[in-house]
Amino acid sequence: MKTTSLRLIAAAFLLAGVTLTRAAIAPAENLLPADTLGFFTVPDCNALRAASKTSPQMMFWNDPAMKPFHDKFMAKLTEKFVTPLEKDLGIKVDDFLSLPQGQFTLGVTANGSNGHDDVPPGVILLLDAKDKSDVLKTNLAALTKKWNDAGRSLRTETLHGLAFTVVPLSTNDLAAILPHRPPVSEIGKEPKPAKPGEIYFTQYQSLLVAASSAKAAETIATRLTGGNAPIIADDTGFAADKLSQFRDSPTYYGWFNGAKFFGTLMSAGDDNNADPDAPSAMPSFNMAKILGATGLGGLKSASFTLRERPEGSSVVFHLTAPEASRNGLLKMLTPANKDAGIPAFVPADAVKFTRVRLDGQKIWAELQKMVANISPQYLASLNSVIDVANTMAQAKNPAFDLRTYLFGNLGDDLIIYQKPPAGDTLADFASPPALYLLAVANADQAIDAVKTLAGMGAPQDSANGTRDFLGHKIYTIALRATRVPGATEPQPNSLYLTTAGGYLAISKNTGILEEYLRSADGKAKSLRDQPGIADATSHIGGTGGGLFSYENQRETMRSTFKLMKNSATDGGLPMFPPAFRDWVDFSLLPDFDPLAKYFYLSVFGGNADADGLTLKVFTPRPPQLSN
Predict the structure, then answer these.
(1) I want to staple 102 with a disulfide (CB 3.0 to 4.6 A). Which of 19, 74, 128, 331 is the partner?
(2) pLDDT-derived band of residue 453, with 50, 70 and 90 as boundaries?
(3) Which long-range contacts (CB under 8 A, 24 or more apart) does 115-122 make?
């Protein structure tokens, strides 16, 4: 008897284990259909909530000092979006916000379109409520009842054994946010009326499934009920990205099916179906030709992952574009595997720094090829502009040739760094001191080329001339007058150039230019020696991939706070529309110093290999929050 009881108990545990295994909801890639164009997923919403509570960004947003600004913004958000949504759909948003416990996925599918029809993309939402399954069921039942009571014509459709409630949509509710195409029309005919939108939704165990069409929902229903419909996990491109990019439990990630998306666009044929009897002066464009020339047709996939760790936040972006077929923009933006570290001359108080090892001459050659492949007419226009510049310059220098003086002189190193604004006016914030360093073979020729190009846009005052500084010549080039915030009239605008250390140095601020020339003595403190940078850089694999960037987020945020607060007293920033200014009352922002503890620094680095291009970003946790 005792043995029998133990066997029954063991069998019960075994059956319970089997039941729990069957109840587990599959990850997004094992449910989304094979024609998925892209998706975003949070594998574990509870883990995301836990990480968000201690993230510097959320701690900053919820700091008591931010409460007046925070509360006004959230009140506007509720007024403009939440309340109308609740009214249109007859729901309470708060009833659903706590439901995501497991995965939350939003996907977009081709929805059966072949690129030649008016079929809109499909939209899919997956939400796993886990132990809140009963709450989800109750909320869905209440929502369905409200819609029925409001006179909506709901119906039920069964897909592979799952009963879906189908809700017709109007432009007053969710139809407004679903992707759609404009009505298709032919010359001399009335446009076809847009098809009414619908939402299919059902609950399977703890999973809410919502889709914009039966086609979009069909594969999910098949997989949930044990069927074997093709899914995105079967895609070889996704499988490769999953292995290399999505391992180690990311907090959330996203994937874009470039092969499917651009393949569909390329199959669509000509964008301009012009009448041959009425030719246009503008060149006719073919989508396949444009995508092929720009290199986008060779982009197999794109992905990103974010991981929250105790030491900081890490984001990785990856473009899968095989080197053998890489061309156009993708080839132009591929950095060489050379050192992109911070040189000793970059001052310690620089708040931003970027260095990229791109070969300027190769970029120019690839650009010409790309333009020619898109339209020979456009390449001819580009060459005409260059010829005009040559004609102007050759009046003073018969040997001048822009192709040689500028493009033929380009090296493979570009450095940009920026310092804090010199003052607290809007004009100071609009134009902080920044220096651009471009590696060139012949600096004098490069300067002549820049002066020639500037002369085509604005008359040059010969009285400005040049001046000597520590054995170097600083050239002044007049630019078109610009409107400066706070000024009633356009203000004079100049560019300053010099050469040193194999670089053409360009800036609109003479102070940072002179500081660069003085740095040759090696006495100034360097940015690369500042605390935290070396450790953060180790998290992105170093600086040997040809691209590196740094930002002192504490100081850039300090400047942003000053800008926002100053703009409040000056009537608001003119670049922000009035509706936006009504949302964000910058006069309610507190002093920045008590909030500085939430900000530190960030770095990112990039590299390319035979598979594609990768960009890694790391933001360490601020030391004040780690203690």
Answers:
(1) 128
(2) confident
(3) 115/264, 115/265, 115/267, 115/268, 116/267, 116/268, 116/269, 118/181, 118/183, 118/184, 118/192, 120/178, 120/179, 120/180, 120/181, 120/212, 121/37, 121/179, 122/211, 122/212, 122/213, 122/215, 122/216
483 compared with 218, residue with greater pLDDT: 218
Q: What are phi and psi of 200, to 5 degrees?
A: -100, 130
Long-range Cβ contacts of 614-617 (<8 Å, 24+ apart): 614/316, 614/317, 614/318, 614/319, 614/545, 615/316, 615/317, 615/318, 615/547, 616/314, 616/315, 616/316, 616/317, 616/539, 616/540, 616/541, 617/314, 617/315, 617/316, 617/317, 617/540
Cα 31 from Cα 29, distance rounded (Å): 6
List of residues 6+ apart from 91 with CB closer than 8 A: 85, 139, 143, 146
Listed in sequence order, the residues at least 6 apart from 225 whose beta carbon sits closer than 8 Å to its beta carbon are 160, 161, 162
Q: What is the mean pLDDT of residues 453-467?
A: 72
Residue 18 CB partners (closer than 8 Å, separation 6+): none
Residue type, 377: Q
Cα separation, 452 vs 200, in Å, equals: 62
C-beta atoms surrounding 214 within 10 Å: 16
Distance CA(459)–CA(474), nearest Å, equals: 19
- Report in angstroms the alpha-carbon separations of 457 from 385, 453, 480: 12, 7, 7
- Scored b (16 or more CB within 10 A) or e, 455-492 reads eeeeeeeeeeeeeeeeebebbbbbeeeeebbeeeeeee
Residue 557 to residue 214: CA distance in whole angstroms: 47
Tokens linked to 605: 């680095």
Sign, CA dihedral 606-607-613-619, equals: negative
Q: Which secondary structure element, helix H or strand E, spans residue 303, and what is its range?
A: strand 301-309
Of 4-8, 262-266, 486-490, the range with the lowest mean pLDDT is 4-8
What is the pLDDT at residue 196?
A: 65
Residue 206: closest CA among 257, 292, 132: 132
Selection from 396, 325, 324, 334 nearest residue 362 by Cα? 334
pTM for this model (two decimals): 0.87
- Above 80 in pLDDT, residue 489? no
CA pair distance 138, 265, nearest whole angstrom = 43
Residue 94: what are its φ and ψ, rounded to 5°?
-60, -25
Residues contacting residue 233 through CB under 8 Å, at least 6 positions apart: 29, 30, 239, 242
Q: What is the dihedral of CA 517, 522, 524, 530, to 10 degrees?
A: 120
Nearest to residue 614, comparing CAs of 288, 284, 304, 220?
Answer: 304
Quote the DSSP letter at residue 194. Answer: P
Q: What is the pLDDT of residues 558-575, one digit of tens each?
A: 999 988 888 776 555 555
| Cβ(470)–Cβ(515) below 8 Å | no
Q: Is 166 exposed, middle or buried (0-12, 13-18, 19+ CB in 10 A)?
A: middle
Contact of 108 with 37, CB cutoff 8 Å: yes
For residue 435, which of 382, 496, 376, 378 has the smallest C-alpha distance?
Answer: 496
Helical H runs in 163-235? 214-224
Which is it for the CA torsion 468, 473, 479, 485, positive or negative?
negative
